[in-house]
Amino acid sequence: MRIGLIYFSGTGGTAKIADIFGSELKSAGHIVSYLRIKRNFHPDLQTYDLIGIGSPAYSFRAPRFVTQNLKHLSLEKIPFFVFCTSGGMPGNTLWNLYKAVERKAGLFLGYFEVSITTNLRSWMPRNTLSAPNQSFLPPISQSRCKEFIFRILSKQSDQVVAEKSPKKNGIISLWSIFLTRRWQMAATVGIKRLNKIKCNQCTLCAHQICPSGAIQISTSGYPRFNEWRCVGCNGCVNLCPQDAIWSYQVRNHAQYNPFQKYILKKM
Question: Which residues are in the 4Fe-4S ferredoxin-type domain (predicted)?
Answer without folding.
Answer: 190-220, 221-251
